[in-house]
Amino acid sequence: MSERAAPFHCPYCGDEDLRPNEQGHGAWECAACSRAFQLKFLGLLAPATSEKSPGREAI
């Protein structure tokens, strides 16, 4: 099984200086803003059944 992809930028400040955090799998820390965060895969979304699905606006 392949290794999971790392985030490219901090979701808070946008900086790219990220390092794995000692909290465990999926935990990262940003050296620029001193925040720690964790990424978690929730699942796949079901494909829309029509163009006017609830919660989605047609463009």
Question: How would you describe the overall organization of this protein?
Answer:
The chain has 59 residues and is mainly beta. It contains no helices and 3 strands. The chain has a 3-stranded antiparallel beta sheet with strand order 1-2-3, with no helix packed on it. It is elongated. The model has no long low-confidence stretch (mean pLDDT 84).
List keywords for this structure.
mainly beta, single chain, elongated, 59 residues, 3 strands
Give the spatial strand order of the biggest sheet. 1-2-3
| Coarse shape | elongated
Order of helices and strands: EEE
State the helicity in percent bands. Answer: under 10%
Low-confidence stretches: none
Count of DSSP helices? 0
Category from helices, strands and their pairing: mainly beta
What does the oligomeric state look like here?
Answer: single chain
**Largest β sheet strand count, sense and barrel closure:** 3 strands, antiparallel
DSSP summary, beta strand count: 3
Taking the alpha carbons of the first and last residues, their distance comes to: 39 Å
The average pLDDT value, as a whole number, equals: 84
**Estimated share of beta-strand residues:** 15-25%
Rg computed from alpha carbons, rounded to a whole number of angstroms: 16 Å
Helix and strand topology:
Blueprint: E1 18-20, E2 27-30, E3 36-38
